[in-house]
Amino acid sequence: MTPRRSVLVRLLVAAVLVSLCSIAATAWLATRSTTVAIQQQRGRALADGQQELRHVARVRRHAPAMGRRRATDRPAEPVGSSP
């Protein structure tokens, strides 16, 4: 191999290695950020679900004591019909 060709081969190998490293780093960053986003979303969903359960329990606990009935406990009234 001539010295000129040897330098070109080394530059090509270096460029390929840099490209592979940048692709790997980009893939790692994308995976990491996606994982963090999914974990945050799960935490929010869990907190929202627990808050909803507390709210439903509070309503069920206090609504009967106040003499209120849910709208679904009474029959529907006909709409637009003459008596």
Brief overview:
The chain has 83 residues and is an all-alpha fold.
Helix/strand layout:
Layout: H1 3-62
Write up what this structure looks like.
By secondary structure, this protein is mainly alpha-helical. It has a domain at 23-47. Helix content is 72%, strand content 0%. It is built from one helix and no strands. The longest helix is centred in the middle third of the chain and has 60 residues, at 3-62. It is rod-shaped, with a radius of gyration of 33 Å. The N and C termini lie far apart (104 Å).
Q: Order of SSEs, N→C?
A: H
Give the helix proportion (percent range): over 70%
Mean pLDDT over the residues: 82
Count of discrete alpha- or pi-helical segments spanning 4 or more residues: 1
- Give the helix/strand class: mainly alpha
Query: How many E-type strands?
Result: 0
Spans of 5+ residues with little confidence (pLDDT < 50)?
A: none
Assembly state (oligomeric): single chain
Radius of gyration: 33 Å
User: CA-to-CA gap between the ends?
Assistant: 104 Å
Biggest sheet: strands, sense, closure? none
**Strand portion:** under 5%
| Morphology | rod-shaped
Characteristics:
83 residues, mainly alpha, rod-shaped
